[in-house]
Structures are given as C-alpha cells and as structure tokens.
Amino acid sequence: MFICLFLRDLFCVCFTRAFIILFYGIKLRRSLRRILGIRWYDKTSNVELWKATDQESAEVLLKRRRWTWIGHTLRKLRDNIARRALQWNPQGQRNRGRPKKTWRRGVEQEMKEAGVKWGSLEAAAQDRAKWKQFVGGLCSTSGVTKA
Questions:
Q1: Is 123 left (phi over 0), alpha (psi -120 to 50) or beta?
Q2: Under a CB-based contact definition with an 8 Å cutoff, are residues 28 and 58 in contact?
Q3: Which residues have C-beta within 8 Å of that of residue 137, sequence separation ≥ 6?
Q4: Using an 8 Å Cβ cutoff, are 118 and 87 in contact?
Q5: How far apart are the C-alpha atoms of 72 and 83, rounded to whole Å?
Q6: 5: which DSSP letter?
Q7: pTM (2 decimals)?
Q8: What ranges do the domains of the chain cover?
Q9: Mean pLDDT, range 100-110, rounded to an integer
Q10: How far apart are the C-alpha atoms of 102 and 105, rounded to whole Å?
Q11: Residue 5 pairs with which residues in a beta bridge?
C-alpha cells in the first residue's frame, strides 16, 4: 500500500505503511527520550521507555487510529464515497510475482485474526460504545511487548 503525502502541492512522495510506522516510531521515541532527558549512553531500551512514559507503541497507535476511522466511515450513509471506497474491489489483471500488500488486505488480515466479518463490523459500528469496546480489544497491548 502506498500513502501519498503532498508537500507544498509541488510533488507527491509515496511511502509504504511499514516505512511510515517505522519513521513515526523513531520520531516518537526520539521525542520521548528528549523529554525524559535520556542520552544515548544511558542504554535505555525501548520497552523501558514505553513503560516509563505509559505510551502506546507507534504500531498500536496507528492501528487504533485506522480502526477508529473505519468505524467512522461505516457509520456514514451507504452511498457516501468514503464508505464505498472501503469495499471497492479493483478489477483487472495484476503484475507477476507476489501480490502487493494493500490497505484492504491488511485490514482483512486483522479482521481474520480477530475473527470478525464485514457484516458484523457494520452492525457494531452503528453503536459507538460497542465500537469503542471492539477497537479497544483489537488494539489492546496487554501481554504484548511494546517495542
């Protein structure tokens, strides 16, 4: 999947999701280390940094934001362009080789891991409290090492 960032309307720079998570995580950790006054010679691991600041890792934070946006979009009218884009399936032939990991495939993989289908997501998204509970369970960090 490619995400385009428009810089001053002059050109478009495309980044993969993995690069954005990595870049955002690096910037976040660097800022937290500056705030806490941790230097490079202090040998503090990222896990200790997350525990000291009680912050989520960049991957969990972006996953939570992605699912919050999906819930927001599923609450829109059926003829809304954003909602139709969620379920759009492009037609045609792909190039040879391993299929590219698209945004939709990433979301479908997370749904498969959680054991939910699109129909149940649409029903859950209509109730905001239920959706927040679903996203909280999907993006929980209990038992997962923050790194």
A1: alpha
A2: yes
A3: 114
A4: yes
A5: 9
A6: E
A7: 0.65
A8: 1-55, 57-87+101-141
A9: 80
A10: 5
A11: 13
